[in-house]
Amino acid sequence: QKEVEQNSGPLSVPEGAIASLNCTYSDRGSQSFFWYRQYSGKSPELIMSIYSNGDKEDGRFTAQLNKASQYVSLLIRDSQPSDSATYLCAALIQGAQKLVFGQGTRLTINP
Amino acid sequence: DVKVTQSSRYLVKRTGEKVFLECVQDMDHENMFWYRQDPGLGLRLIYFSYDVKMKEKGDIPEGYSVSREKKERFSLILESASTNQTSMYLCASSSAGTRNGYTFGSGTRLTVV
Which among A43, A92, A104 is the nearest to B104, CB-wise? Predict the structure, then answer.
């Protein structure tokens, strides 16, 4: 069973600080990874994808991938109350066309 | 510009009813998926389809069936609704290979009474 593990939280971060969200995956063959943001009562929205080892930056968001350690992370700089949501990590299963999702980490940004 | 459309945002159905959840995408995606999401259980894959008239069971197909007669439309059918099928249902689509991830619909909150 291919798995993606996340700390369910809740993770509480003060406004303006860096929020760090972490994820590990079991399928060593996975090559593509995604971070989704899901507001309460809404559907998941793709915010970052990463395919290569290292960092990928998009505005206040940075995704990090370490394939040797099977570890993916998402950093949110200058956290805003509007960043309060559940963040889902997903990995593309090798040889398939479907994603495996973690349980999600609930993030709260405190003003 | 809505790209994955689920026909209903909220539905209330009675136990034993046959329920149809419709999903339409306008991105010419090959792959379509149905998930349900419950608190503490995360996203669970019900069925998926990589092509027209093709379907594959996901992790929890019992009590459900699907239909994909056209590339853009993927329907989820609850043959005889039960209270344990009360959930948020999410449709998603992706291009071949899923290299760019999924695009989700807005979801259908189904309550079976």
Answer: A43
Is the Cβ pair A43, B106 closer than 8 Å?
Answer: yes
pLDDT by residue (tens digit) across A62-91? 999 999 999 999 999 999 999 999 999 999
Placement of tokens 């019900």 in the chain = B46
pLDDT of residue B103: 97
Nearest Cα neighbor of B104 from B40, B36, B12, B53 is B36
B36-65: burial string, b at 16+ Cβ within 10 Å, e else: bbeeeebbebbbbbbeeeebeebeeeeebe
Give the burial class of A76: count Cβ atoms within 10 A of its Cβ; 0-12 exposed, 13-18 middle, 19 or more buried.
Answer: buried
B96 interaction partners in chain A (CB closer than 8 Å) = 97
Total Cβ atoms within 10 A of residue B94? 24
Q: For residue A2, what pLDDT is reported?
A: 73
Question: Testing the interface with B: which of A52, A58, A99 to mutate, by most B Cβ within 10 A?
Answer: A99
Contact of A64 with A55, CB cutoff 8 Å? yes
Q: What is the pLDDT of residues A4-42, one digit of tens each?
A: 999 888 999 999 999 999 999 999 999 999 999 999 999
Q: Is A83 helix (H, G, I), strand (E, B) or coil?
A: helix
